[in-house]
Specification:
The structure holds three protein chains of three kinds. By secondary structure, chain A is mostly helical. Helices cover about 80% and strands about 0% of the residues of chain A. Chain A has one domain: Orthogonal Bundle (MetI-like fold). Classes of the chains: A mainly alpha, B alpha/beta, C mainly alpha.
Amino acid sequence: MLDWRWDFTWEILPRLLVATGNTLLAALLGYGLAIVLGLALALAQRTPWRVLGMVVREAVEFIRSTPLVLQIFFVFYVGPQFGVRLSPWTAGMIAIGLHYAAYLSEVFRAGLESVPKGQWEAATSLNLSPARTYFRVIIPQAIPSSLAGMGNYLVGIFKDTPMLSVIGVAELMHTANAIGSETYRFLEPYTLVGIIFLAISLPTAGGIRLFEGWVRRKLGILK
Amino acid sequence: MNAPDMSAFPLRLEGPSVPMVSFRKVTKTYGSLVVLDSLDLDVNEGEMVTIIGPSGSGKTTVLRMLMTLESINDGVIYVEGEPLTHMPKGGQLVPADARHLRRIRSKIGMCFQSFNLFPHMTALENCMEGPVHVLGLSRKEARERAEDLLAMVGMAEKRDQHPSRLSGGQQQRVAIARALAMRPKIMLFDEVTSALDPEVIGEVTNVIRKLVAEYNLTMLMVTHQMGFARDISDRVCFFYGGKICEQGSPDELFGNPRQERTQQFLSAVREAI
Amino acid sequence: MGYFEFLAQYGDRILSGTLVTMLLTVLAAILAIAIALAAGLMRLAPNALVRGFATVYVEIFRGTSLLVQLYWIFFVLPLFGITLEKFTAGFVAVGLNLGAYGAELVRGAILSVPKGQWEAALALNMSPAKRMVRVILPQAVLIMLPPWGNLLIELLKGTALVALIAVADLMFQVKQINGTTFLSAESFGTALVIYYVLARFMITPFMRWLERVMMRKVGRA
């Protein structure tokens, strides 16, 4: 074929695999943050205080409508302008966490809406408190229909981790760039990065579908 | 919109025989549609009152307002002499806050047409949920109570099944046990057999018969099962256009209806059977 | 400096960057739509080879990130003899990436058209091509318009990455401005607002208008 060098490939592979670990860590941490924040944003939009609900709604729309890479730059650089230094990791986590929290809040909102109204009424008739109603009755039922969307965004967040390279987080893309600039060879690093991404994202997507089925069975809700 | 004038309503109902439930001039509107029109209705302790009538007459709304699922536009609902929809504040009745509603609501239980069991919990867990998390019973006490009630409704062997594995009649019986586990003083049945296949209606009506015979509960029931209503009710109310058109003992209302509307409704229902 | 002074001094660069972003978006959108239609239809083809080819394309471009694809197209393709100028590489990468997602939307929408429509067209002895163009696609287009609205916003956001290969779009301009002035809040903040305005107040209303037009055409207004 063209100039593919296998010796070089094996040489750089360990370094790329270590960086992959970093990538996975960043993705999982960011996702965890996004779930917690996303649930909070979804619940905040259901508040009886209409003004708060509307403000949160617009904020979510704003985050969803603007590029993640720009948000990453914003979070990383705005801090120092006002005297707060954030490490690339911290800034990256905050930016990615917020960005995906906005997406997940839409998924959770739809999940909460999909719970039949009768469930709320049954909870009222048993005099369950609002907190109990949410945590024991509504949210467990909102989860199965939210899983597909949550799974999509897990894969999505993993694929977006390369954006963290622009502020110097040593994940996969950043490492590939570094190898490229050191050795002037881009073919092997970038191709390997592509393959590694495929090798992780495709099975993950499949695994999520299996997980969804397991959760439905476990909760006794067979649809 | 001006707040209605509450000064005409007493802060408490006093007297020797205060009704368990009392609707005083209760009005409910949806926009321009008047669903309940200045309704007066008393239900005494231990009474079983059945509400019948055409759809849109407001019968389900009566139950839903008592269960605080709907808000009130005018008038006051009293439970055991205390206002439910309002509370006394500075010598005046003002709309009830969440705490007040929760306190009075604990006296009332409801069964729904669509059962509304929690699908992610077993029958037993459904019946334990309220007692543990609202009444504060220990899990052991709640379990004993739930098992007794499930046995009473004939669902003891199915206690570890999820609702998706139960038939409609079975689910409704579990729903009755769940409501009773909260030891309410007032039980509401909102068309509890309307979503069931005809063969299993009897399962549920038999449970309700048992309740009437063995417990001293105050009950309000909305139903289309006229024969059943005639058998077990102390009083029957015929609703029309958001008001009580006629009420009386079952024999009076079914046997000798005085109002023309009542007669029309009853003959239409008999035709349908 | 105050915000208005900032705008006065750098406004023209920000504006030129915005125009480049808009141009990239339009070009990428045209490419994405064309690819999505082609790949979506190919995914439904009876021929397994055709289907397989389209599936491979879709899985690769959806399974890897746009940034990786962009770098690959700009840095690696030249080694295969295909050298694209950076502006072109930019919108081609975005178009190819979002075309893959679009292909799934096209496929899903076509499959959502009620089976009776296919059968009626067959009963009228329409050729497969005529059936697709005159009966199925118009209805499929209406079904896929809402999710395409979201996709176009993703496309707009995707163009921001071309700044990383030094295309002078909005993202690039504010990055430069930040690099010299360190006024991060003003520069990046303005860019955020502009992207938001483009998405919420241009793309979204446009898609709603398009939806209304299509509904009238399908007779459902």
